[in-house]
Amino acid sequence: MYARELETPVAPAMTDQPLGKDEQIVTAVRHWTDRLFSFRVSRPQSLRFRSGEFVMIGLEGENGKPLMRAYSISSPSWDEELEFYSIKVPDGPLTSRLQNIKVGDRILLRPKPTGTLVLDALIPGKRLFMFSTGTGIAPFASLIRDPETYEKFEEVVLTHTCRNVSELEYGKTLVESLADDPLIGEFIEGKLKYYPTITQEAFETKGRVTDLLASGQMFSDLGISPMNAETDRAMICGSMGLNNDLKALLEERGLVEGANNRPAEYVLEKAFVG
User: Fold this and answer.
1) C-alpha span between 270 and 274 (Å, rounded)
2) Which end of the chain, N or C, is less packed with Cβ atoms under 10 Å?
3) Are 31 and 5 in contact (CB under 8 A)?
4) CATH 3.30.420.10 describes domain 12-114
5) Residue 167: what pLDDT?
């Protein structure tokens, strides 16, 4: 396995100099593959957010100006720290540098959360589908660790589509850890279903989740009933192609797109696609 163990956490109090404006301390880093990593940072005392939201994080640029990008918070709203899950882009202005951060380093974080992948943007239902590709699993990593998700829905289905099997490791490890989690373990029992799919390697569930949904295979694989607009709700976070294809599939089944100011049957995040 490529994943390196979490580096030893460091408390912000151990740093020599006080934090500057919008600065936070890196407390843990884990590299899952040569293209994916996650990291945790200290949480601003003033930050209040809803699970599923994103913030702007970054580093100071070579010109002295902040280089910021939108990142979903992958830790739940109750966590004392903030977790993020990122791709590594060798020539990316931010990620080419961010992938090299170490415990004790400082990053910039603007504590102004926003986003549409929140429970408040959905009308009440019985079953919640979370559709993700790649690092689009991040907001759902937050939501599946939030007790409110299971208080509002009787069943939660998390789908995660990647190109290679190794790219599933972050989500797989997280889901497997929840059963023993002292806070969330009792909530997920019998409620959370995990459905990983792979597009470019041999795997037990091979293919794009859109094809597996359209054909009905996803429902038979999971042993659940087909989608019903009256009781099913959905969230989407992935590539523009996934967003558009799933939007069409959901609307064919009678689901209506919602927003923070107009809750409905499904929501998708547009902040991370070009």
Assistant:
1) 8
2) C
3) no
4) no
5) 98
